[in-house]
């Protein structure tokens, strides 16, 4: 099989941003933040793990065929992937969800997108004011758990929402050295950005996440926050990913077991993509 290459941004014509009415979005946000979000985090994780376990049962593999037909126009979509963990077949729906590329994407650009999904929030760090929305302080530093002056104001913030149908592995956006790995305990409120009209990154402020910093060859830090949501059984990091280790561009750095969002603060603005566009692993950042 030939390697998958990217040079210009790709689009997903079947990835639509739901136009949820304001009143309905308010109800969804209330249920997510004020009802589900007020449950103890331990209970949220137990319920999420119980739900996620359904997709690890052998019978769940029957979902894969209908799911592919419903969500992908390309009938050969699955041919570029393989089952995880050296398996020969997709034995469960979770195997499909955690699918691996047969061959990693290739791109000559030094900077690439680390994940696949909807670019639901973006902006210069210096233009993103700190504010409090219904008890949640919106600041870039709060997401990445850094001191207020750590991230330069000329950095650019992006938040990619990974829909259930998207590829759910996170790859390094740049080659460099891992300088920080931080686990941040938290909630597992609903991730879908269209129910948080004024603050699509609100879940990234509240939810359990891993923050990973990578220093590139120019000495600039790339900040990543890998955020879980409801039904996330776990966020897994490779055993070899440790502080001080070197990573190559597009090397896998995290895996979600259902539900996710990936935030990034980078030293440059995306070259092609704008808010509410579709980004793909390996596409030029």
Describe the structure.
The protein has one domain. Helix content is about 20%, strand content about 25%. It has 6 helices and 15 strands. The chain has an 8-stranded antiparallel β-sheet with strand order 12-8-9-10-14-6-3-15. The protein has a 3-stranded antiparallel β-sheet with strand order 7-13-11, with no helix packed on it. Strand 9 and strand 10 form a beta hairpin. It is globular and about 50 Å long. The two termini are about 25 Å apart. About 40% of the residues are buried.
Describe the structure in brief.
With 285 residues, this protein is α+β, with helices and mostly antiparallel strands.
SSE-based structural type:
alpha+beta
Average pLDDT: 82
Strand segment tally: 15
Number of helices: 6
- Termini Cα gap: 25 Å
The succession of helices and strands, N to C, reads HHHEHEEEEHEEEHEEEEEEE
If strands are numbered along the chain, what order do they take across the biggest sheet? Answer: 12-8-9-10-14-6-3-15
Tell me what portion of residues adopts beta-strand conformation: 15-25%
Number of domains: 1
Q: Biggest β-sheet: count, sense, barrel?
A: 8 strands, antiparallel
Helix content: 10-25%
Radius of gyration: 18 Å
Low-confidence stretches: 1-17
The global form is: globular
């Amino acid at each position: 099989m030939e390697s998958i290459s990217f040079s210009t941004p790709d689009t997903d014509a079947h990835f639509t941003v739901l136009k949820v009415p304001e009143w309905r979005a308010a109800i969804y946000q209330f249920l997510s933040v004020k009802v589900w979000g007020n449950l103890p985090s331990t209970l949220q994780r137990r319920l999420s793990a119980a739900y996620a376990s359904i997709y690890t049962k052998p019978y769940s593999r029957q979902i894969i065929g209908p799911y592919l037909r419903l969500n992908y126009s390309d009938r050969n979509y699955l041919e570029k992937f393989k089952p995880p963990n050296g398996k020969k077949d997709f034995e469960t729906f979770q195997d499909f969800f955690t699918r691996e590329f047969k061959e990693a994407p290739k791109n000559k650009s030094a900077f690439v997108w680390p994940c696949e999904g909807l670019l639901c929030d973006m902006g210069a760090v210096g233009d993103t004011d700190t504010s409090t929305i219904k008890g949640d302080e919106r600041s870039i530093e709060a997401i990445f758990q850094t001191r207020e002056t750590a991230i330069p104001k000329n950095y650019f913030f992006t938040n990619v929402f990974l829909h259930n149908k998207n590829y759910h592995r996170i790859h390094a956006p740049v080659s460099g050295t891992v300088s920080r790995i931080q686990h941040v305990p938290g909630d597992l409120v609903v991730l879908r950005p269209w129910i948080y009209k004024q603050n699509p990154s609100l879940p990234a402020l509240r939810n359990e996440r891993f923050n990973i910093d990578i220093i590139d060859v120019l000495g600039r830090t790339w900040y990543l926050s890998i955020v879980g949501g409801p039904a996330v059984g776990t966020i897994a990091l490779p055993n070899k990913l440790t502080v001080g280790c070197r990573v190559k561009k597009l090397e896998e750095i995290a895996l979600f077991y259902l539900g996710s969002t990936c935030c990034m603060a980078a030293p440059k603005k995306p070259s092609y993509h704008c808010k509410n566009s579709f980004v793909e692993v390996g596409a030029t950042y």
